[in-house]
Amino acid sequence: MPADPLEALRQPVVPIAPRQDFAVELRARMADALGLAATRSASSARPAVAALSVYLCVRGAPAAIDFYRVAFGAVETMRMTGDDGRVGHAEITLEGMTVMLSDEHPEIGVVSPETLGGTPVSLYLHVADVDATYARALAAGATGERPPADQFHGNRNASLRDPFGHRWMITQPIEAVSVEEMARRAPDYTVTAEAQAAATNLLPTPIGQLGYFTLSAPDVARAAAFYGALFGWHFEPPGPGSTGRTYSHVDNTSVPFGIHDAMDDPSPHHYYRVDDLQAMMVRVRELGGEVLSVDEYASGGSARCRDDQGVEFDLWQAAPGY
Fold first, then answer.
1. Which of 75, 104, 107, 71 is nearest to 87 (CA)?
2. Contact (Cβ atoms closer than 8 angstroms) between residue 58 and residue 65
3. In terms of C-beta density within 10 A (0-12 exposed, 13-18 middle, 19 or more buried), how is residue 13 classed?
């Protein structure tokens, strides 16, 4: 048979691990169901840190995942499909945040806005370009409710309903507005001092604050496979950079960055914060990397690692209260 010309583009098949707190929760629930709670180790206990996450119910989860990918740039990280074909649990990352969703399960009271006839909840999404995001979402099937417009509080906002009944407010900060200025612009509202905390979030980015960085690796595609599986980073397709080097941008982290193959421009050493140092060290080894040393400091535990191409980095689990 003739050789497949696309074989040269084949990437390593790397399993994707579920998010750590979900794995811990699922393990705990299974142990409870099987009557094995007494055998749990301390490391498998439910995390003590409180956090609020978004969990959506939709009618047609696979289609919803596709919509959020096209409209908002979401990246699917896991999916659990039952024997009946319904998605019982799925996760996507959206602007650095994990969003969970499932199909309707009315037998246990889990129903979508389509069944309820509407929703009283709005999802507030910060984006870099409101107009582009709004247009992309409408093209993907959303219904516009309020087109993009500058607001008195210093944001450019728009609102829409996705094809599954959820309302999204998308926002882009455009200027810093003081409480006094906000009150002047909105005389029909009483703006109290408590609004100051929200206003300070819109202050210009301080000069010198990290806004972008780059990593170096001999093979960009291979690095994307390793770190994508380890951390869930989403890499845009590699292409030629401004200096001719291969370059790929990571688009689902709070601080954007890229990776290139110019080894004469090496990475600074990075410490990646993780929730479970032991579990992540196991994951590094599973992906073909090495754990070189493990240390404990006042700031927390740290593991010096080497990825599958020999590039060193550290994993760091912060000490409680640090």
1. 104
2. no
3. exposed
CA pair distance 35, 232, nearest whole angstrom? 33
Hey, what are 52's tokens?
């609020």
For residue 211, what pLDDT is reported?
66
φ, ψ (nearest 5 deg) of residue 258: -140, 170
Both structure tokens of 177: 């507005």
Contact 165, 112 (CB under 8 A): yes
- The C-alpha atoms of residue 315 and residue 101 are separated, in whole angstroms, by 29
Q: How many Å apart are CA 225 and CA 287, to the nearest integer?
A: 9
- Please state, in angstroms and as integers, the Cα–Cα distance from residue 307 to each residue in 195, 217, 313, following that order: 46, 10, 8
When comparing pLDDT for 162 and 21, which is higher?
162
- Of 121-125, 205-209, 239-243, highest mean pLDDT: 121-125
Q: pLDDT confidence of 134, banded at 50, 70, 90?
A: very high
8 A C-beta contact, residue 318 and residue 274: no
